[in-house]
Amino acid sequence: MDQAQIIGEVSVSSAHLGARILLRWARVENPGGTALRLSPVDVGVDVLCEGITVTGKVDLTGARIGRRLDFSRARVTNPGGVALEAKALQAAEVSICTSEPIRDIVDLSHARIGVLRDDPENWPGELRLGGCTYEALEPQLPAQQRLEWLALNRASHSPQPYEQLAGLYTTTGQPAEARRILYAAERLQHTGKALPARTWSFLQDITVGYGYRPARAVLWLFALLIIGSVTYAAVPPASLNPSGAPHFNPVIYTVDLLLPVVDLGQKHAFNPASAEQWLSYMLVAAGWVLATTIATSVARILTRR
């Protein structure tokens, strides 16, 4: 059926084919309905739709393709609906490198794909990836670009597409890119929650990045240590017991305030006044917040692993 011109629906259903299905440079038109239905079919080799022009839905739900499904240089439109429905598709290779963006929905929910090829210049208007698994993505792109790709999955806030992509970066030796993806997933999971939950989420984000940005905690501690040390060096707090108090050290005193549970013998020996007293309260509270958010983030990461 290469270069065929068809008005209406092309349908192959519940078939087992050992040969290829060839629809290269064909034109199929069924506006408002299904134009091409290959659902469910079991094709032993390839389904080649290179350069095809389809007006209407392409339905590949449940199709099993032994080797390659090729929509390179294709044009598919189904205004207001799903343009390419490939839920539960199984294929060794899938190419969706269309000649122009599919403005409508591409649904790959629960598909199982070996190699998935796409074109960043022609990503669809909406992409559904819930439950979709793949062994490789081509082209290989930085995590920041693939996050834009995942953002097309607007129908769901499930972390599974993010975890799938992070797993791919991990297996290809890119742990930093994997952490970037998982961090984005955590931020997405905390949108739309009640105010108390959003507040706690915000604290976890800015302090340790949900455990994926531990350097933030170090920077916070360093900044607070400088603020406290400089302040208490300029205005040392009064001793509670002048005859038995240890020698005052502004740096150790600040560290003692910041570290929960730990007692270095300074914070209970001196009593700051006025604004310095409020600073001490803030440092104690900040220390507890940092410790709690770090512990929560570490526990979450270990649980997922």
Which key terms come to mind for this protein?
18 strands; 2 domains; 26% strand; rod-shaped; alpha/beta
What this model shows, in words?
The structure is a single chain. With 305 residues, this protein is of the alpha/beta class. Helices cover 36% and strands 26% of the residues. It has helices at 143-150, 160-171, 175-189, 195-208, 214-234, 250-258, 274-304, and strands spanning 5-7, 10-12, 15-17, 21-22, 27-38, 41-43, 47-48, 53-59, 64-70, 75-77, 82-85, 90-96, 105-107, 112-118, 126-128, 133-138, 238-239, 270-271. 32% of the residues are buried. The mean pLDDT is 90.
* Rg calc: 29 Å
Please tell me the overall pLDDT: 90
List segments where confidence is low: pLDDT < 50 over at least 5 consecutive residues.
Answer: none
Tally of individual helices = 7
Distance between the termini: 49 Å
Percent of residues in helices: 25-40%
Sheet/helix structural class: alpha/beta
Hey, roughly how much beta strand do the residues contain?
25-35%
Number-wise, the strands total: 18
Succession of helices and strands: EEEEEEEEEEEEEEEEHHHHHEHEH
Summarize the structure.
Helix content is 36%, strand content 26%.
Topology record:
Blueprint: E1 5-7, E2 10-12, E3 15-17, E4 21-22, E5 27-38, E6 41-43, E7 47-48, E8 53-59, E9 64-70, E10 75-77, E11 82-85, E12 90-96, E13 105-107, E14 112-118, E15 126-128, E16 133-138, H1 143-150, H2 160-171, H3 175-189, H4 195-208, H5 214-234, E17 238-239, H6 250-258, E18 270-271, H7 274-304
Parallel strand pairs: 1-5, 2-5, 3-6, 4-7, 5-8, 6-9, 7-9, 8-10, 8-11, 9-12, 11-13, 12-14, 13-15, 14-16
Antiparallel strand pairs: 17-18
Helix pairs in contact: 1-2, 2-3, 4-7, 5-6, 5-7
